[in-house]
Fold these 2 entries.
Entry 1:
Amino acid sequence: MLSRVAGAAPNARRWVCLASLLLAPSPAWAIRPFVTDDARVVGARGAQLETWLRLDRNALQHWVLPAFGPHERVELTLGGVYGTTLAGGRAFSATGPLFQAKLLLRRMPERLGFPGVAMVLGGVPPLHVGGFGATGWDGFGYLALTESLRPHDHFLVHANVGFYATTAAVEHPLALTWGVGTQLHLWRDLYGVAELFSGDPYAGASGGSMQGGVRYLLSHAVQLDTTVGAGLWGQPAQAPWGSVGLRIAGDGLW
């Protein structure tokens, strides 16, 4: 009897610790389906899952991107996308793995000051099924800056600038990417999000687009997003789309 109680107590403590991590206060991050990234990482022994559905007239996509923090300034991401192409007939499609490393160069200050800065490098191999993916290696890199203009992250501004490159036989194998995004506290745990960007490093898309929507903190470690967007320029401009995203995160998971 004592051995069963002794074995149950540590298990109970583990569940309590996990619940406290999921419910612990944490800032609202710039997460996918937001294309413009933020200058933050999950932290040492932290982990997160970013996943979202994206629908336009060409395809229905489901992205899955888990990440973890081997160091307080390093975040590693590995994931991919699968779904169904819609234009030209329905067919299962998938590509990956997408891998990404983010290095935090400067933490965002608690008060207004020089913004937080992070550097990101990543890529996708030419492994795919169906219409997703490319015929060559895709690589990307960018600098991300984040500034908080109001206390408690109630008004965040993000800026990215970088590049997208591919070994595929295309007209423009190297392209500049950039993005400017904002997140504004609306009411309680509801935030408005909007961004203007040119090129999507994850998808290899070119041209400029805009996207807007809302973000809701279901708990302080679980965030829900819904957005709509459309291409503004480029040949061809991106088709209008809608998306729904989820982020789950925790600190010190091991």
Entry 2:
Amino acid sequence: MVNPAYTIYGAPGSGSVPVEAALTLIGQPYSVIEAPTWEGESERAKVAAINPLKQIPALVTPGGETITESAAILIWLADRYPEAGLAPTTDDPARAQFLRWMTFIPASIYALYWISDEPSRLVGEDEALQAMVKAAIKDRIVDCWRMMEAQVSPGRYLLGDELTVLDLYVTVLSRWGPRRVRFYEAAPKMAEVVKRVDADPRLAGFWEKRFPFFDGWERLGSAGLAASAEP
């Protein structure tokens, strides 16, 4: 018997959050297998059979197919449910820029967290060197946001007046290090967009459960959420 719901391997505050937000807006049922992989091997083992890299998010479709990589999942969901209007269609003039930025984010920004979360993976146990690596990565992420800011012309949302999965993606990742305060400074036009997504009434209950706001959240991390949300 085919499970009628999607299954997401994820965790609060992690890269699964934009996927969960997309499914919430689409209106498709889903369940989450909580797997905060940064907490140890037992959590990574939950994901191993689905994703050999032992990383989240991973999506299992109602038909049993596994999709990994957050950008791929988001694009696939948006195309699978065009009635939700979460991506430009293939004949829309905005499609090229949609694909450009949906690819830019994981290639230029998201991938850096694998290093910054555990610099020892590349530079060993020297704490001073690890601190230098973390600081350099934060600066690089800010530079990437600044470059994107210079090349987009948002309306209400990044690609115009309709919310897409790109807006969900940027909204979540901009809450990770080096935090929203630096994001706002580097990307004031995009800042207005992510604030609009933060305040979307359709997602109010969702944010409260999966990436809650709290006093000072724009400057500080969300303790106990994703490793990517650590200072």
